[in-house]
Amino acid sequence: MAQLGAVSQATPRRPRVRLTQLLERLLPKLALAPTVVLTLVGIYGFMIWTGALSLTSSTFLPSYEFAGFEQYQRLFANDRWMTACQNLAIFGALFIGFCLAIGCFLAILLDQRIRHEGMIRTIYLYPMALSMIVTGAVWQWILNPSLGLEKLMHDWGWTSFQFDWLTDTDMVIYTIVIAAVWQASGFVMALFLAGLRGIDGAIINAARVDGASLPRIYLRIVLPAMRPVFFSSVMVLAHIAIKSFDLVTAMTSGGPGYASDLPALFMYSFTFTRGQMGMGAASAMLMLGALLAILVPYLYSELRGARNA
Amino acid sequence: MKLIRHLMVAIALCVAGSSAQAGEVEVLHWWTSGGEAKAAAALKQMMEDQGHTWKDFAVAGGGGEAAMTVLKTRAVSGNPPAAAQIKGLDIQEWAKLGFLTSLDDVADKANWDSMLPPVVSKVMKYEGHYVAVPINVHRVNWLWVNPAVFKKAGAEVPTTLDEFFAAADKLKAAGVVPLAHGGQAWQDATLFEAVALAVLGPKDYTAAFVEHDMDVLSGPKMVEALTKFHRMRDYIDPNSVGRDWNVATKMVINGDAAMQIMGDWAKGEFTAADKVAGKDYLCVPAPGTQGTFTFNIDSLAMFKLNDEENEKAQKDLARTILEPEFQTLFNTAKGSIPVRTDMDMSNFDACAQKSMEAFKSTADTGGLVPSFAHGLATTSAVQGQIFDVITNFFNQKDADPKATAKSLASAVQSAL
Known about the structure:
The complex is a heterodimer. By secondary structure, chain A is an all-alpha fold. Chain A is 74% helix and 0% strand. Chain A has two domains: 16-53, no CATH class; 78-308, MetI-like fold, CATH 1.10.3720. Chain A has helices at residues 2-10, 14-53, 70-76, 79-110, 117-125, 132-143, 149-155, 172-197, 201-209, 214-225, 227-243, 246-251, 263-273, 277-308. In chain A, helix 3 (70-76) packs across helix 14 (277-308) and helix 5 runs antiparallel to helix 8. Chain B is 53% helix and 14% strand. In chain B, strands 1, 2, 3, 6, 11, 12 and 13 form a seven-stranded mixed beta sheet that branches. In chain B, strands 8-9-7-10 form a four-stranded mixed beta sheet. In chain B, a hairpin with a 2-residue loop joins strand 4 and strand 5 (129-130). Classes of the chains: A mainly alpha, B alpha/beta.
């Protein structure tokens, strides 16, 4: 103690300054460290682990017996996996497409300085506040031929009315699109509305002065200016589509048969209930691959574009 | 410091307290609904009467999926419960990984080998050693009939598949749903299992679903079974998609539907609705499966433990489960039959008595076959593959039975 005191007396105040400086420099890193560690272990670590498992012959517990790409081969020979992938392609394309179209359209309509805009906006945005499970359950009731829409129409006397997509193996995937679009398009609308409000009124007025019609203004000026909004919407929607699990579980649990199965459901059932962890891991890796295949080029072009601009 | 010392004393007392007691037995199960919970409580009481502590490890949710995940984590971290509800071929998988303990001393003392039919004890043994205890036997190939509906439609209770279709036509014409069914993969498989057994017979059924003989799996008889199975679609109402089995049973109870092919756990629903077997409802073998018995056995697999006292409690648990007193108590509550063939059946209802007779007689004739729909015939991997093919086939309006038989064989092959 005495020695330390002597040292600090000999060089007054300097170490303390250094200490605070050091602390100042380290503090942000220290504060971020837990998050970084969690992300590294919890996301990238487990990604690598899953990748490793997909190359093993793991059954219902992880084992590290190397099996090469056997699990991937089995996966591609599996009809259910192929159906799941096909469904994801249909679901993803229609879901993103319709959400963008409806969201954008609603936003443009709302942007016309109408009365009660706040209330209407809230109404459209509300579905997003619901859990996917609730959305799924409600739409399952609505579309169920013996409970919902079809029965209502029959009760009202329109007995030839038929809408049984929910029980039709070929059409069931579209019912999931309906429910998902209902839930997410209000959110896309909100994003677009914010984007529209951000556009400088002077540009539009200038176009008006030049004699451009309203549709032309929107097509040529407003929509191109909304590129970043498109970008973030597609990002959000694409990952909602790929990870979508709860909606299908609540609406059809993958049925009838496995007609509405999606890769996420497939992965869960093979890893945790079927005792085929290797195959489940392989399917998870393919899902990751698909996500990267879409997002990386998109991110790259968008970010490069932003930097050049 | 004082606080720490107090804490240490407290901890020491706790440890001393728990080791002074007789063993603790922790059981992972999902007997949580009505009659099942009552049955589990009976076991708990019996263990406590022997001076052991019972620790419930019930994880609710979806046929034990959630529970299995917890079990895996605990087993891998070296802290498994004493016993867990694991059945069929999964017992072998767990034993292969070295998690299960041998019960041979208990089994020898109580002479399990003479009490249990060999088909049953085969499932409970790994390399000749008992590693699990069977609790009950469910018969899966039952046809539940509402006789009042049959009478109104002028139809006869079917004993063959042809009679089934004839009766179903009459019932359909009378405006009732002939067959109550729920469109879930395992229910589709349960229905197919009954049809396949009727068409293939027990020998080919075993060849296909236990030994995985590719020629039988893709053979002409399988095509015939698939064709008949697909025909049953015509007698199921279109709203069956995703319906739970007990909702389907309620349709039979209420007279909205005439029949259901389902295991004997369906009896619980009839009993809960105050219906009497033989009067308000009939239980007959599924059409064309007289003289056969598809069994589904619940069992507790016993894990290796470190604590000697707990191990003793575990052995006591194993012994208690196969004692007549518990067998009667548990099975009357759950609707199944005892796994011991030497039991007095007078406390059981008519259906259970019929089931027991069939269980004993088919054990001798070779008609006693494991249910693949309930994991007794195959590993969960193969079972899952069969489920996928069957449920996909059944849910398509115009599926090709021939191509399906082929894909059934290749699906099974891919999971072996």
